[in-house]
Amino acid sequence: MSMNTVGRPTRPEAPNDSEAGFTSLSGGRGLLQDEPLIFELGGWTKTGVDLPDAVAADGALAGLTRDEPIGLPGLSEPEAVRHYVRLSQKNHAIDLALYPLGSCTMKHNPRLNEKMARLPGLSDIHPLQPQSTVQGAIELMDRLAHWLKTLTGMPAVALSPKAGAHGELCGLLAIRAAHEAAGNGHRKTVLAPTSAHGTNPATAAFCGYTVVEIAQTDDGRVDLADLEAKLGDHVAAIMVTNPNTCGLFERDVVEIARLTHAAGAYFYCDGANFNAIVGRVRPGDLGVDAMHINLHKTFSTPHGGGGPGAGPVVLSEALAPFAPTPWVVHDENGYKLVEEAEGVAAQAFGRMSAFHGQMGMYVRAYAYMLSHGADGLKQVAEDAVLNANYIKARLSDLMSPAFPEGPCMHEALFDDAWLEGTGVTTLDFAKAMIDEGFHPMTMYFPLVVHGAMLIEPTETESKAELDRFVDALRLLAESAKAGAVERFKNAPHLAPLKRLDETLAARKPKLKWKPVAPAPLAAE
Amino acid sequence: MRFTKDHEWVAVEGDVATVGITAYAAEQLGDVVFVEVPEVGKTVAQGDGLAVVESVKAASDVYAPVSGEVVEANAELGDAPETVNALPESGGWFAKLKLSNPAEVDALMDRDAYEAFLATL
């Protein structure tokens, strides 16, 4: 029998169960290359595009003509493509795995949304086109507005804010305008609970308000007595998140609204966690005056580096007259964006953006609404809550839930009491999750819980994926309790970059890459 | 040395009070990365914002524990904020105030009272 004796070996020479201590010669790792900055990759002397020579400026720049190289990197198309794909391989994305950042609602971005957003009639249009040529797009905005108003039980919506915090700004500007119109401009205080998102006090301060904290009860909710004591003729609004950042429903929300209104103040609800109650609870029924809705959370549009946010704000009857332009009206002649603050819009406080907001996100959110329907959206909230409670239930014997009593809403919150004496911190534990292939949860937020670990699985994860996640966390937790501190102290060990020295980065930041020695322009 | 419930300390020499934050506060803040000290000549009332201290974890106001006029500020903290962690109750001082109401000092806690207060936190 003739045999090929020069074939390549098909088995490892020796058992290969450890990469400890092994480093490559070039800094590459497996098939992942070490990636320099784009400025280090491409010099200004080369370019990947062939542009015609520039027309002489003829002195039109009045002596401001550049005579130094601009220093932009020149790369060929494959070099540029590879640079960004390599960077993306070193990063995490919702398309790679579960992304359990609490309060961020990193849910799957359905491909149907993307398909709809790419329809030429919706993607190849421009805000300055005559409105008669984009009637379908404006109608879509009107229908989206209808869904948002219906789901929240509120009479008006401002679509244009471009993110959650931008929505907060819109809501507080409407509140300020309403107070000023009623001669209540002296109200200069905004109340917010200690567990609030940092954007709440930041927004209030930006609007010229002084922020006063409302205490929290031991079971993680607004302290009604403290709220009542702090309300008064000086208070313009309260800002409360519901469900709150501890993942708990504010059971007394109706009473909170009643007390607030009795004091002549408005109730701003931070709607970042609307995904936990959509289809089940209408904030309008709770007495809310204004609430932003993160389309990029509740309604599945991309975010976290994947796409712009969108934060429409629903408004109560009292605030509706002050809504910013533009908004959509329609009659027998079709759809129209009201742009000018006159007539019915005379009290509009202004506008939040140059045009009408994030059209691409409107399409995606509307596609999500239509594909789920009202019953499907209700199930979104139910499954989000069910998944979070599953995680809480499966980890509560090893880790310490911050609020063990009763179920949570859409996120499971643990404190670091269970790590006491192990030498492992919340930060160490979170970084070790990276070695296990999972993005860390939100950590050290909310501030009211010591060493907080806030896990939000969202409704889009299957039980199998939740089990994989929980199993990994259980192994880590057991390892921490067994004293394997080394596994945690310098984690991540297997990531492209190791633990950062955040203190050094803050004390001695390098904010700008500087070229080694730029060469002068070659004489022609 | 006298202390406040907001974890500032005051050391008085003559009519000038040196102000800083306590070792407990420095420990709680974590690594301090930025300090903003007041301008000399600024007048503050007790409880006013006097300085800002920023750590990796949080940015916090430092309140004036007593009323007075800023006569000196610790400019070295600008380049070396880590001094607040290393020497919170000596070299990491923030500012010196010329007292306008020395009686305020007596009303602050002494070391024993402050330690007892910390034990309740």
UniProtKB/TrEMBL annotation, chain A:
Q: What is its EC number?
A: 1.4.4.2
Cofactors (names): pyridoxal 5'-phosphate
- UniProt keyword list: Oxidoreductase, Pyridoxal phosphate
Q: What's a Pfam family this protein contains?
A: Aminotran_5
Query: What InterPro entries does this protein map onto?
Result: Aminotrans_V_dom (IPR000192), GcvPB (IPR023012), GDC-P_C (IPR049316), GDC_P (IPR020581), PyrdxlP-dep_Trfase (IPR015424), PyrdxlP-dep_Trfase_major (IPR015421), PyrdxlP-dep_Trfase_small (IPR015422)
- Ranges for domain Aminotransferase class V come to 202-304
**Top-level EC class:** oxidoreductase
Q: Which residues carry this modification: N6-(pyridoxal phosphate)lysine?
A: K297
Reply yes or no: does the keyword Electron transport apply: no
Q: Which GO terms describe its molecular function?
A: glycine dehydrogenase (decarboxylating) activity
Q: Where does the Glycine dehydrogenase C-terminal domain lie? A: 382-482
Question: Which SUPFAM superfamilies is this protein grouped with?
Answer: PLP-dependent transferases
The annotated region (Disordered) lies at 1-28
Membrane-spanning residues: none
Query: Which superkingdom does the taxonomy of this entry point to?
Result: Bacteria
**Catalyses which reaction?**
N(6)-[(R)-lipoyl]-L-lysyl-[glycine-cleavage complex H protein] + glycine + H(+) = N(6)-[(R)-S(8)-aminomethyldihydrolipoyl]-L-lysyl-[glycine-cleavage complex H protein] + CO2
Briefly, what is this protein's role? The glycine cleavage system catalyzes the degradation of glycine. The P protein binds the alpha-amino group of glycine through its pyridoxal phosphate cofactor; CO(2) is released and the remaining methylamine moiety is then transferred to the lipoamide cofactor of the H protein.
Q: Which family does it belong to?
A: Belongs to the GcvP family. C-terminal subunit subfamily.
Q: How does it assemble?
A: The glycine cleavage system is composed of four proteins: P, T, L and H. In this organism, the P 'protein' is a heterodimer of two subunits.
Fetch the PANTHER family from UniProt. GLYCINE DEHYDROGENASE (DECARBOXYLATING), MITOCHONDRIAL, GLYCINE DEHYDROGENASE, DECARBOXYLATING
Protein name, per record: Probable glycine dehydrogenase (decarboxylating) subunit 2
Provide the species name.
Caulobacter hibisci
The UniProt gene name for this protein comes to gcvPB
TrEMBL record, chain B:
Keyword Nucleotidyltransferase included in the entry's annotation:
no
In-chain residues carrying the UniProt-annotated modification N6-lipoyllysine: K57
Domain of life according to the entry: Bacteria
Keyword Transit peptide among record annotations: no
According to the record, cofactor stoichiometry and binding are noted as:
Binds 1 lipoyl cofactor covalently.
Q: Identify the Pfam families for this entry.
A: GCV_H
User: PROSITE patterns recorded for this chain?
Assistant: BIOTINYL_LIPOYL, LIPOYL
Q: Which UniProt keywords apply?
A: Lipoyl
Q: Which residues form the Lipoyl-binding domain?
A: 16-98
**Annotated NCBIfam families:** gcvH, PRK01202.1
The identity of this protein, by name, is: Glycine cleavage system H protein
Which species does the entry assign this protein to?
Answer: Caulobacter hibisci
Gene name on record? gcvH
